[in-house]
Amino acid sequence: MQRMSQLALWAALSIGMAIGLFVQFFLASRGKAPLSPPLSMPLMLVLLVALMLIFGLRLRQQIRRGTGAVNPFQAVRVLALARAGQIVGAVFGGFGIGLLLSLLGRTVPAALEVWLPMLLTVLSGFTLAVCGIIIERICQIPPGDDGNADGADERGSEPGGAGNDQPAFRDGGAD
User: Fold this and answer.
1) Residue 157 CB neighbours (<10 A)
2) What is the DSSP string of 56-105?
3) Sign of the alpha-carbon torsion through 90, 96, 99, 101
4) Which ranges in the chain belong to alpha helices (H)?
């Protein structure tokens, strides 16, 4: 498996930004107040960051103990959580940027109660995305753990086969 593509993260950020702008322009065309996300949204994103950090740091401790100490299914779940966190963080960060961008064109500046939750959404979304990137890198197997450069073990099975208990993935050197 390879690392998550940066293009996918930029696409998620762009989609979130477009949705945020669309929502604000739609509300403005109807004569309604701009959308200000509830403070519970950035709070939930920060709680997701804490959860990801707990699982990621536990996995890192297991990897340091050795490959046999790592449950490969748990490692793949943490990897999936990290990748989902990257996408969700990019979408919510972009959504918050879209909400904030719509306020820039206004002649009357918005009140603190309007733009502060938007800014907190941007910050917590980006924190979630960065945490996902860090946790994804934690899931890597350090180079040279299996003693084989081509990726196949002594029995001739391919990585990810039934007899291989690698934690999650090995960096293919793509970045």
Assistant:
1) 12
2) HHHHHHHHHH-GGGS-HHHHHHHHHHHHHHHHHHHHHHHHHHHHHHHHHT
3) negative
4) 6-29, 40-65, 72-104, 112-138
**Paired tokens of 93:** 């960060």
- Summarize pLDDT for 90-122 with one digit per residue, the tens: 999 999 999 999 888 777 777 888 889 999 999
How many Å apart are CA 53 and CA 68, to the nearest integer? 22
Partners of 169 in beta bridges:
140
| Contacts with 12 (C-beta within 8 Å, 6 or more apart), sequence order | 86, 87, 90, 91, 94
Rg (the chain; Cα; Å): 21
* pLDDT over threshold 60, residue 166: no
**Residue 19 buriedness (CB in 10 A; 0-12 / 13-18 / 19+):** middle
CB atoms within 10 A of CB 69: 11
Nearest CA-CA partner of 128 in 76, 96, 84: 84
Q: What is the number of alpha carbons within 13 Å of residue 35 lying toward its C-beta? A: 21
